[in-house]
Amino acid sequence: MLHLEHLSLNIPDTNKPRVVIIGGGFGAVNLTKDLPDKDFQVVMLSKLNYYGFWPLLYQVATAGLEPESIAEPVRKIFDDRKDFHFRFVRVTNIDPAAKTVTTLIGSIRYDYLVIATGTTSNYFGNQQIKQHAFGLKTLDDAVNLRSQLLQSFEQASMTRDPETRQALLNIVIAGAGPTGVELAGSLAEMRRHILPRDYPGLDFKQMNIYLVDGLDRVLPPLSPESSKNTHEYLEELGVIIKLNKLVDSYDGHTVKFKDGEQIRSQTMVWAAGVAGAIIEGLPAEVVERGRYLVNTFNQVQGYEDIFAIGDVAVMKTDKWPKGHPQVAQPALQQGAHLGKNLVRQLRNQAWQPFSYFDKGSLAIVGRARAVADLPGNKTLRGFIAWVAWLFVHVYYLIGFRSKLIVLANWVYRLFTYQRGARIIVRPLIKEEDKMGEVFVRQPAN
Amino acid sequence: MLHLEHLSLNIPDTNKPRVVIIGGGFGAVNLTKDLPDKDFQVVMLSKLNYYGFWPLLYQVATAGLEPESIAEPVRKIFDDRKDFHFRFVRVTNIDPAAKTVTTLIGSIRYDYLVIATGTTSNYFGNQQIKQHAFGLKTLDDAVNLRSQLLQSFEQASMTRDPETRQALLNIVIAGAGPTGVELAGSLAEMRRHILPRDYPGLDFKQMNIYLVDGLDRVLPPLSPESSKNTHEYLEELGVIIKLNKLVDSYDGHTVKFKDGEQIRSQTMVWAAGVAGAIIEGLPAEVVERGRYLVNTFNQVQGYEDIFAIGDVAVMKTDKWPKGHPQVAQPALQQGAHLGKNLVRQLRNQAWQPFSYFDKGSLAIVGRARAVADLPGNKTLRGFIAWVAWLFVHVYYLIGFRSKLIVLANWVYRLFTYQRGARIIVRPLIKEEDKMGEVFVRQPAN
C-alpha cells in the first residue's frame, strides 16, 4: 500500500473556468460531453474508474453478460480531450465558502461544482442487513453476487441435508423495483434453461425465488397496468411474490419479516431502497430525504455555483412534485442541459430552465416478456415491449465495442439459451487459506 | 458462511468403474472427453469451477480480453453427460491403501484416480515474495493484476513526488518464460498505444518494464534461435531485459536482487517458477522436483490405478529425459491417451504407451512479433509466426462463444489499438472502509 502523503490531485491551473464533477455516471459523463474542451477545464472525481451501464447490471449478476461489456473506462470515453482530468479518488467534503472540495488526498478549488454522485443502498440504519445482504450497485457487487449464486448451487450439490439444500436454493430479493424485478425474472429464466443442465443432480423445483416488497404492487414507479402485466409475467416464470411485506432482519442465514414469517436463505439481495450519495459540507436544509434540493437550473438551494444532477438531486415541479424518477433519463438530460447552460453563461446568455422529456419506462421480465409505459398513458407488453427494450438498451450503451459484444451475447443466447459467464471469480485469498475457496463468502457492503 | 458438516460429496453409486479426477484443466477435460459416459462414472474435483485457457491469461491481466472470454464453466462443457459429477472442492489427501481421496467435506472411493492438478507458483520458500508479489495462475490473479496495474497508473497521475511516481511506473516481471515474455510484450504494446491516450498527464517514457531471469536467455524452453528473436523483439518494444539475475527479496516496495541491485516498484509479477501441485498421501519417493514420476502409461510409480497427467507428472523417456515441457500440449495429449487406455482396459485390450507428438512451440511478443519452433528444428518469426499463433490459440479455445468473442476483440484491437477491459474490479470491501477504494491493494497469493 502506498502512503497517502505521497499523493495529491495534481491538476494544472489554467485560465478557463474549472468544472469539478463528483461522480462518473450518466449525468457526469453527459455533462462533460456538452462542455467544450476549449472553454472549460473538467475535473472528474470518482470512486469507480469506469462508466457503468447500470440498467444491465442484473445481467452480469446472472451470468448473462461479462462485466466488461457493460462498462467503459471513463478515461477512454474522453481520451480526445486535452483539459479533462479524471481522478480515481473519494471526495470527503465540500467547502462552499472557500469554493473547494476535499478528497482523501487533498483539496481542489472549483469555479463550478457539480454533484453527480447518484445513490447508495439504503439499509434504513439496519447494520446487520448491510453486513449480510448482497447489494447490486457496482460491477464488484454484480461479480460478487454471481459468484455467490453459483457457489450456492455448487454447495447445494454437495449436501444430503434437505434443510441446508433448501436454504441454499432460496433466493430472497428484497425490493420489487426495476432491479429486483429484472433480477428475479433473469434468475427464473436461468432456473428454467440453464441450471438443470449444469446441475443435473439438483431438483430445481426446490429453488425458490422470492420477490418481496413493502408496497402493494411490483414496479411501483410504473403504471398500474404495467405492474399488473409484470406481476403476471413473474408468476408465469414461477417467481414467488410477497407484497406488503417488510424485512425485519437478516443474519446471513434466515430472513425474518416484520409479520413474523421466516425464510431460511443463504442469499438475500437488497434492492429495497436507495438514498442519494450525500457529501458532507453543505447545510442540512438543502437535503431532503437524501437528495439535494435544486431549482430548475439544477442549482443546489442557496448556491449559484453548486449543482446537483441525476439521482442525487430532487427538482420539484408542478408535473413532478416529488422530483423526477431516479433512473437514467433524468440524469442524462440534466447533465446535457447543465452543460448547455454553462456554455450560455460563458456567452452571457440567459439560462434555460430544465424540462424533463419523459420517454417512457421499460422493464424486462424474461424472454419476450417485457413491459413499457409510453408517454401519453399508453402501455406495451410482451414481445413488442421486449424488442423495444432490446433496442433502447443497446442504443444507449456507449461505445462500439460494448454494443458489439452485448449484441453477440444476446444473439447467441437467443438461439441457444446458454450463458457463458458462469465463472466464479472471488479474489478473497486471505480467507481461502483458512477455509478453502468453496466456503468463502463475501457479503456486499 | 455455511458449516462444513452440512456438506458431503454426494456422489451416486453405480456399477461402472469410477474415475476420480483431481483438477479441471487441459489434461482433466481432455481425459473426460475420451471416457464414454455409458462406460465410466467420472467425478471431477476442482478448486475452480471453470476451464481456463491459461496461455491467454496475460491478455486478461493487460486488459486485452475479458476474463470470461478465456474460460468455460466445466459444468457447461459436460452438460450432456449423465454420469459426470463436478465438485467444487479442495482435495486434501490420497489414501492408496483404502483407494479413497479425502476432501474438505469428506472422502470418496475411486477405481481409477487421476491427478491432473497442474502447477502452483513456486516461491522457493520465500514467504515475503509470496505475500507481496502478484501471481498469474488463475482468473482471480489476472483480474487482480489488471486492477493493480490500472490503479498504479491512476496513483501515478496523482503524485508530484518523482520517486513515488517512478515506483508506480516500474513493473518488474520475474521470470522470462512464456508467461513473463508475453506479459512484458503485451505491457509494452499497451504503453505504446493505449496508456498515453488514457493518461495524458503521465510521461510513459518513465514507465519501465523489467523482465528478469536467473538464466542467460529469455524463453529458455525454446530454441536459441527463437530466444534470440524474442530478445530482439522485446528490446524493439523497449522492455529492459536483465539476465543471470536472481531476485533476493521483495517487500511490496523494493525489489532486491542477489547481486545488490535494487529497483523500487509497487508491482512485481512472479512468473519465475512453478511446482507441481502435489497432494498429500503418496510416498515421497514418487515425487521428483515437485512432479509425480510416471511410466509411459502415466501410472504413478508403484501404482496400477493412480495416474498423473500434464504438468504435475514427469515421464522420462529417451527423447525427453527430463520429462515433457510443462505446457498445454503434453497435458492435452496425455489426457486423451489415458482415456483411450482406460477404454482398452474395459475391453481387455493391451494398453498403449504414450508418445508425445511435439507440434512445436509458439510465443507472442507483440503485434506481428511472434516466434515459433517447429518440429524438425525449423523456426519462424515475425508476421507469419504471429498469424500461426493467432490461429493455434483460437483453434484450441474451447466453445463457440469464447472463440467468437475473442476473435471480435482481436479484430477490433487490430484496427483500433484499443483495449476495452480497462476496468478496476476489486471486491475487497472490508478494506475499502478503512482506506478508500483508491488505496486498496491485494497481492496475489
Number of helices of chain A: 13
Q: CATH class of the largest domain in chain A, please?
A: Alpha Beta
* Major sheet description of chain A: 5 strands, parallel
Largest interface: pair, residues per side: A-B, 87 and 86 residues
Q: Report the oligomer.
A: homodimer
Helical coverage of chain A, percent range = 25-40%
Strand order within the widest beta sheet of chain A: 5-2-1-9-21
Quick structural overview:
Two copies of one chain form a homodimer. Chain A is α/β, with parallel strands linked by helices and 445 residues long. The first copy, chain A, is 31% helix and 22% strand.
Task: Describe the structure in your own words.
The structure is a homodimer of 445-residue chains. By secondary structure, the first copy, chain A, is an alpha/beta fold. Chain A is 31% helix and 22% strand. Chain A has 13 helices and 25 strands. The first copy, chain A, has helices at 26-33, 57-61, 74-77, 127-132, 139-156, 162-169, 178-193, 195-198, 224-236, 328-346, 382-396, 400-416, 429-435, and strands at 18-22, 41-46, 50-52, 71-73, 84-88, 91-95, 100-103, 106-109, 112-115, 119-121, 170-174, 208-212, 240-242, 247-250, 254-257, 262-264, 267-270, 274-276, 287-288, 291-293, 306-308, 313-314, 361-366, 369-374, 378-381. In chain A, the strands form 8 sheets. In chain A, strands 5-2-1-9-21 form a 5-stranded parallel β-sheet, with no helix packed on it. Chain A has a 4-stranded parallel β-sheet with strand order 13-12-11-17. Chain A has a 3-stranded antiparallel β-sheet with strand order 6-7-8, with no helix packed on it. In chain A, a hairpin with a 2-residue loop joins strand 19 and strand 20 (291-293). The longest helix of chain A has 19 residues, at 328-346. Residues 427-445 of chain A have low confidence and may be disordered. Chains A and B meet through strand 4, strand 5, helix 5, helix 12 and helix 13 of A and strand 4, strand 5, helix 5, helix 12 and helix 13 of B. Chains A, B: It catalyses: a quinone + NADH + H(+) = a quinol + NAD(+).
